[in-house]
Amino acid sequence: MQIVWGTVLAVTACSSALALQDEDQQAQRRQFLGRPGELDPQEEEARCVVDGINMCGYETHKQMIGRLRNIEQRNPNIAKIGSIGTSVKGKPLVYLKLSGNVNRRSLMEPMVKYVGNMHGNEVVSRQVLIYLAEYLANGYGRDGRITRLLNTTEIFLLPTLNPDGFEISREGSCDNNRLGRENANRVDLNRNFPRQFDEPQNDLRRLRNGREPETLAAMDWITRNPFVLSANLHAGAVVASYPFDDSPRHRTTGFYSASPDDRTFKYLAQVYARNHREMHKNVRCTRADDFPGGITNGAKWYDVPGGMQDFNYIHSNAMEITLELSCCKHPPASSLPRHWLDNKNALIAYIEQTQSGVKGVVMDINGSPVSGAKVSVVGINRDVKTTGAGEYWKVLPPGQYRLVARGDGGSSREVEVSVDGKDPAIVNLTLQ
Ligand code: ZN
Question: What is the DSSP letter of 254?
């Protein structure tokens, strides 16, 4: 009932033009919502409660943490709060992990993350990730799709990577607004990661030197955990942008910089855009924007050296795309329910893609798991490395593939596998 109530409200919610002045309309609405009697004093607030979630305004960093902590306290078996580090001004960079049996890791359960608000003035992502956390926690055990998602996936939601920037950003500032974009040291975090075409990439310890605390926290989080899938959420356009963001010659725009997994990335971007209410329609926030199907190669749009997206791909197994969620970077709070509803299904459908592809364990001839073995798909010039428990995951669009593992103990047979896009194909590989 609560979900229906929220969804109905959402159609008109929070728009200031909403006021249903007509008595009949109000009565009708009360009946429709199944709420007897007069509208209660909290009616005003209820207008921006969607899916049972309060979307009535932006909260401070402290309030946001309080909200996440509250989810954890109410759902100790499926929600766990954590921090990846601190901002320049010492604010904790907090995430919420959501998963069935959240306190222990299950073998072969893929990890997925969303990182919002790394540009502190691009705030829609911060809000929708808070709402997603509540939506998933509330839906567990009640909604089949969400229950399945949490039982098969470890979901990490980090609503803000730049809380200091967010603190000075101003509600209602749409474009030409850079206040809060950078961190407190006035560094653009999405230019502060190692530049894959300009710096030698083999020594991660050296690459850590001189980075901003927020960048370092993200780098360590990315490289120390076996994330499979990821998205980096921004604003200022409405598009799903996929690697590479950077190209060897840094041509400002128009150069398609393909990664070895180009086909998969394009597929992943399409999944998000098609499941978003507007993105697939080629939304043009500026005259220059032109994104057929709502997707673009990052560098083709414009060159981004030192971005987080490419870092994920170069230094981990995580496939990360960049999602631009709204034309206006810091829209009025009254638009938050609309942004949530625009993105809700896409956010969930994207996480579900961790189940598209193949996964398994690489073993030696004695059946012991092999850590650090390389698994490759024939035709894709990019391996994934197995975890300490020998696990691997490879996200792939539906189709037929051949894969092989290599490690200290030799090579596996080449195995043929069929990917259906719904359930992961499980292929254990033995080195011999
Ligand atoms: Zn941005």
Answer: S
176 alpha carbon to ligand 1 midpoint, in Å?
13
Interval 188-204 mean pLDDT: 93
Nearest to 322 by CA among 245, 258, 393, 389: 245
* Span 82-136, pLDDT tens digits: 999 999 999 999 999 999 999 998 999 999 999 999 999 999 999 999 999 999 9
Answer whether residue 295 shows pLDDT above 70: yes
Cα 214 to averaged position of ligand 1 atoms, centre (Å): 15
For 71, 103, 398, 410, 416, the CA distances from 419, given in Å and listed in that order, are 35, 30, 5, 26, 10
- Cis-peptide into 244, omega within 30 deg: yes
pTM comes to 0.89
From 201, 295, 200, 288, select the one nearest 256 (Cα to Cα): 295
* Phi, psi for 296 (deg, rounded to 5): -160, 150
DSSP state of 369: B
**Side-chain-side CA neighbours of residue 287 (13 Å):** 0
Residue 178, pLDDT score: 84
What's the gap in Å between 119 CA and the centre of ligand 1?
A: 5
pLDDT at 4: 33
- Phi, psi at residue 68, to the nearest 5°? -70, -40
- Any catalytic annotation for residue 199? no
Closest CA to 218 of 316, 135, 143: 316
Q: Are 117 and 167 in contact (CB under 8 A)?
A: no
In the chain, what are the domains?
2-54 (no CATH), 61-355 (3.40.630.10), 357-430 (2.60.40.1120)
Q: What is the pLDDT of residue 31?
A: 38
